[in-house]
Amino acid sequence: MSYETGVRWKWIPAVVLGFVLLSWIVFEALDLIDFDGVVTWVRGIDPMWAAAAIFALLVVDVLLPVPSTPLIVLAGTALGLPLGLALAVVGSLGSSAAGYALGRFAGPLLVRRVVTIEELTEMRRWGRQFGPWFFGVARGIPMMAETVSVSAGVSRVSFRQFMSYTLIGTLPICAAYVFAGSKADTVEQIVMISAVGFLLTVGLFYLLRRLVKAAP
Question: What is this structure's pTM?
């Protein structure tokens, strides 16, 4: 799900990290979750159910604020590297395709519930600066990927071109997260992988945004 550009982006890392830390403290203090057994439980889930749930959540990410990074990490934890990577890539591409279809075929009122006019304008500036490679870069940046997908549909970019460059950006991101998730043995490691990945991609967003603003 997209967010208005500007001030909200500045608070996203703090809000996410604050929520994670607060939840961790509360659950630990009240002993509500057996953290030592969570990873074992995740790996014991029926692979078909785990794959279906992760795939569905990745696809609806275009409409709902679903955290895709932890889902991709969990795909590696629950399903291992080959199957987890395939699922993460297909689910991510499914989300991108759904966003593109929404932007291209839905009415303006529905589209504006997902992205704002200001976001569409900014996405066009990014496109002029980076060309079609922008679709690949955006795939790894939380919440920006959905905005870019819808914007590509609104702008009637070639679907083949959009999906090709999105795949180029999706593969390495998913491979890194899934591999890390497959090696994680504790909940702490899963949380750290997700948090570090999130902060790195948000940092990349700020760097690229400065380049876009500085461009003539």
Answer: 0.76
